[in-house]
Amino acid sequence: MMPPEPNSVGGASDSAKAPGIIKGDVPSIRDGALISGTVVSAQGDGYWVRLQGKLLWARSTISLFVGQRFIARWDAKSDPPLLHVKSLTLPAIEQFAPEDRPFAMALLSRGLMANGEAISFLKGAWQQMGSNPALIEALTELLARGLPLKEELALPLAWYLSLSPQAVVSLWGELRTSLKRYMKDGVPLGEALELAGRDKSELRDLMVAHKALLHPLEGGAKLEALFPLIWPLLGEDGPRWACVNVQVSERRGQKVYHASFAFEGKRIGEVRGDAFSDGSSLVITLRSRDEPSKSLIEEHMEELRHSLSAISLPLRHLSVSVGLSRRGDRTVGRLDVTA
Fold first, then answer.
1. pTM of the full predicted structure?
2. Residue 281, SS3?
3. Beta bridge partners of 103
4. Residue 126 φ/ψ, nearest 5 degrees
């Protein structure tokens, strides 16, 4: 979708008050500070932006799109914070024709090739579905996962990608309640899922989108470009969720599955991690924001090991370190892991 002209002003609706940032994270950027960042994802009237190496949720005084770099004045008094954009840059995207830029930007944001063939393929599928701008991101996600660009997948996925994490978690709660009701009467899980989808179309679309996003990213698709999959976390301190990406690669002739995730804990703050498996064992690395958070996680490592023992894969490695970014390559057990 082509962004509105730079002098158009974005509204501050309640839909922009999406989740994503714990209040304690905001003071790290001084109110009124001039900052530079990149748009990682657009949802409703708000944006996930990467600032100072961290993903934050904010609104903007002008419309932005994924991949766009900006310089803005940070307004921390707004809820969510507001970006008073001063300037924008369109690095590689200017080489494309204006009508091709939405497709090129979508492909590039996922780490995919944005050549004429790829743009034509994506654009053709989009036009066959009525040229709905909201479908471009969904079609790109399907393409990055090697899934067919079909309307029955793209429409539920586009709807899912427009939801806030709170809305996704709420729908998962409804689905869980519905499944418990059916299974209490002896209905098998597969049939219970189908019945829940018949009861409410939003639950059916939720399952379709979730299943699609669980397909691993293929080839050179960028794992950290976006975390579109919202995974609900159970807890007693309100709705919480993890943002997840799944990727598959081949090393020495063997497939390695890689799930990258991030979540905010009430006491431990932001935690990021990676889970790797070659189908015979499991490696999990966690990264905390500071030493106190790392210590809190370490206090519960045995509980985590016990929970992981319930799955069929043996746990080969489990660790936690300080620092949210990955560092270097290393080999853990028999898995060749990029940490």
1. 0.62
2. coil
3. none
4. -65, -45
**Alpha carbons 132 and 135: distance in angstroms, whole number:** 6
Q: Which of 149, 170, 167 minimizes the C-alpha distance to 159?
A: 167
The domain 229-338 is classified under which CATH number: 3.90.550, 3.30.750, 3.30.160, 2.40.50?
Answer: 3.30.750
Each residue of 234-289: pLDDT tens digit? 665 566 788 887 887 777 778 888 888 888 887 888 898 999 998 889 999 999 98
Q: What is the pLDDT of residues 185-231, one digit of tens each?
A: 998 988 999 999 999 999 999 999 999 988 887 755 555 445 678 87
For residue 167, give the 3-state DSSP assignment: helix
Q: Where are the beta strands (DSSP E) in the chain?
A: 34-43, 46-51, 54-60, 69-75, 82-89, 229-233, 240-251, 254-265, 269-277, 282-288, 315-322, 329-332, 335-338
Question: 14-89: which CATH number, 3.40.462.10, 3.30.540.10, 3.10.580.10, 2.40.50.140?
Answer: 2.40.50.140
